[in-house]
Each structure stands twice: as structure tokens, then as C-alpha cells.
Amino acid sequence: MTIGKGRKIGTVAVCVLAQLLIAIDLTVLHLVLPSLSEQMHPSTTELLWIADAYGFALAGLLITMGNIGDRVGRKKLLLIGASLFGVASVITAYAPTAELLIAARALLGVAAATLMPSTLSIVRNVFTGKERAAVIGVSSGLTILGFGMGPLVGGFLLDHFWWGSVFLVNVPVVVVMVIAGALILPESKNPAPGRIDVVSVLLSIAGMVGIVYTIKEVAYKGWGHWDVAVAAVLGLGCLLAFVLRQPRLAEPLMDLKLFARRAFSATVGTTILAMFAQLAVSLMFAQYLQLVAGWSPLKSGLAGLPGMGGAIVGGVLAPMGIKLFGRAITIGLGCALSAIGFALYSGIGVTIVYTDLLAAMIVFGVGLALILTVATDTVLGVVPKARAGAASAISETATELGGALGIAVLGSALGALYRSELVIPPGVPPEAISDTLGGAVQFAAQLPPDQGALVLANAKLAFVDGLQVTMLCSAGLMAVLAVSVLFTLRGVPKVLEDPEEEAAPVAAPVG
């Protein structure tokens, strides 16, 4: 597809705007929950569903929406999804009950599932080779910046307006995106689309939601609950049935032959493992800065901006790294920098030293952007344009799964370490402070000053000890990944030519 330079710049701007919208919305909710709870008084179960409905809908529909975009047109799907995102944002902002709020958050997740694969597949069809790598580098860096902007935007709005304002602010952004997208974005789709298999759609949704639900619930309350067991069996069973069904279909929802391309399967696997380690950082350090250091959400968000700046630098440097060293070494370098960042994070103490934190977050941000930029460009570059939506959806699903697993597994590990290291003062009921650091902080505020100070000091020390061990384990994982990608991605060419659907056997190794 050949379009002018101005239109290409406009295309990048619209796609980055969509990614920023999703990134900010993913991170802003955690700030909203306290004030939302005070005003709406949801039950504990309702509060969990308010937090998770978005992620369930997003994870469950990514593969389906990527395929729909390939068939009906990526531009059309993006514009529909953006409009739906705006409508759902208004409903969320003015939701009068917890039940309607949960439904609105699910609708936001559906809309986000249309936007994420659409933006990547549009980039895949407009840009090729080195140009595509540069565009993905810039957009990846800006998207990571969006994750850092969420707490800033949310903190500012919550200081001046009611909780719904953090969702209502999406509306003008959506209006600009829809108008600009309608005028600028080129349309593209699979020239020979087949019918979508409804059974595969249902299996993929049930499987992904079941797995993500299981991961989240295990992180919240552990095993041993009937709903977790049912979700695990349902999720695994549906995903197994989905995988077994695909090879028998003339037009599969997920083309498993894509995984026969070594560059594709290795990069997807790398993305899952990298995000496993990376996504836990934002959750853990939000707790560290606010509950240990005692900083406000706004100050915590400002403190993380240098790391976001490092991510932008990494995104810009990624295409240069591909050109100089190749894809395997560049991703390996990103993993090594992330490992160093984790190792530096492990040196934090109860008393915060921001300069030490600053070095860790910059190194970590550069490494994360190198990994995501090169991984995304590789996944898109080794598949035909006609399958860009499906490939983008697989890439985004890998990111979602890796992040969910990281938060669940590493978050649970941190919780277990906290409980094992916690020293409970005499006369303090263990159940009041042994669950989470947040619970200990709230309980300590109700005690006499001397006893409260002791409880708080012990809880902070136990949390930091657990955090240090978790960071060291994450550093080890990234170090191992840095070495493994040198072998799994060996031979992948620096510049990926656009493969045709039948140009070569799909099982042939790349490079």
C-alpha cells in the first residue's frame, strides 16, 4: 500500500492516540477505586468485578476481533471500536450503580479489543521494513509513556473532580481520533476472507476468560475454591478444544501454521516471558511508593516519569539496534538491561533513595522498550499482510497473558514472602496485618501511636524484604531470557521482507 508522507504521519498519530487511550485507561482505575468505593459503596465482589471486567472482555475478544478486522477492514473496525469506547466511557462516568458500572467496564474492554489489533495491523499494512521498525519503536515508547501518564492524569482529575471524570476525559480524545481516522487512515483487509467459525469464537472467549479469571483469582485468594477450579478446567478444556479444532477448518480463527515460523513462535514466547516479569513492576512499586514511602498517587506518578522517558529512548534506539546488531542481539540486550534494572531495584530499602530508584527505572525502561519494539515488529513482519490482524491479536494476547501471569505469580510470591517475614507484635491479631501491606497500614492507623508505629515498621520491612527477593528472581529470569533469545531468534534477518501467503512453506525457518 503506497500513501503520501503526510498521510503516513497522520496514520501513526491516530494509531498512537488509540494505544495511549488504552494504556491510560488500563492504569487509571486503581486510583479511582478508593473514591469510587466511598461514593458507590460496592460489595467486595462487585469491586473486584469493577476492576476485572475490562481485562476479561479484552483478553477474551482479542483473537476474535483481530480476525474480524482482517475480514471487514481494519480501519472500519478501529472507527467502530473508538466510537464504542467513547460511548462506554460516558456510561462508565455516570454509572449510578455497581452493576451498571461493571457492564460499562466490560463494554470498554470490548472496545479496547477492537482497537489494539487494528492499530498494529494498520501499521503493518502501511509501513514495511526499516520504516515499520522505526514507527513501532516510536509508538511503543509513547505507549509505555501512556502507562506512566495514567496515574498523573487520574491524580490531577481526582484532586479537582469526581471519580467519573477520569473516564469522561476519554470522550474528546475519541472524537478527535474518529474524525482524523475517517479522513486519514487507509482501509485494508484480507482480499479473500472466509467465514468466521462461531464455535471457535465461543471456545476462544470461554478459554481465555477462564484462564485469566483463574490467574486473577489465584492471585487474590489462592487455590482451594470451587470457582477457581471450575474456571481452570473450563479455560483449559475450551482452549484445548479450540486448538484441536483449528487444523480441521478451511478458515481457522487462529492459523496455527503461523507458529511453525520460528521467528513468530519464538518472539511470542519471548513476549509472554518478558511481560511476565515486567508487568509486576508497576503493581509492586505503586504499593512501595504509596504505602512504604508514603507518597501520594500524583507524586508516585511523577516519580515514574524518568522510566517512561527511558522507554521512549529505547523505542527510538531499537531500529538502530536491529540495523547494527540484528534482532536476536537487540532483544537479548533489552532483556539484559531489564535484568540489570531488576537487580538495581532489589537494592531498595524502607527509606527511599530516589537517585537509586532513578537509575533502575531508566535502565529498565530502555530495556523494556527494546524488547517490545523488536518483538512487535518481528511478529508483524514474518506474516502475510492478509493475516496482520490475526497476528497482531496473537501478539497482544501474549502480552495480556504474560502480564496477568506476572502479576498473579510474582504478586502471590511477594505476598507469601511478606507473610513469612512479618514479625507480629504482641497483642496484635495476626489476621489484621498478615494479609497485605495495605491492610497493615489501615490497621496501624487505628492503634495507639507507639503500637501503630511498631506495626507499620514491621509491615514495611517485611514488604521490602519480599520485594527485594522478587526483584532478584525477576532479574534471574530476564538474564536467562537474554541468553535464550540469542539461540531461538538466531538467523532472523535484520530487514523482514513482506511474505506472500504461499510464497514458501510456512514451516520453513526464517533466515
UniProtKB/TrEMBL annotation:
UniProtKB keywords: Cell membrane, Membrane, Transmembrane, Transmembrane helix, Transport
Positions of the Major facilitator superfamily (MFS) profile domain: 11-493
GO cellular component terms given for this protein: plasma membrane
Primary localization class, coarse: membrane
Entry annotated with the keyword Metal-binding: no
UniProt xrefs under InterPro entries: MFS (IPR011701), MFS_dom (IPR020846), MFS_trans_sf (IPR036259)
Any Pfam family the entry gives: MFS_1
Cell compartment(s), UniProt: Cell membrane
Top-level taxon of the source organism: Bacteria
Segments traversing the membrane: 12-32, 47-65, 77-96, 102-123, 135-156, 162-184, 196-214, 226-244, 264-289, 301-322, 329-352, 358-380, 401-418, 469-489
Protein name: Conserved putative membrane protein
Naturally occurring in which organism (per UniProt): Amycolatopsis japonica
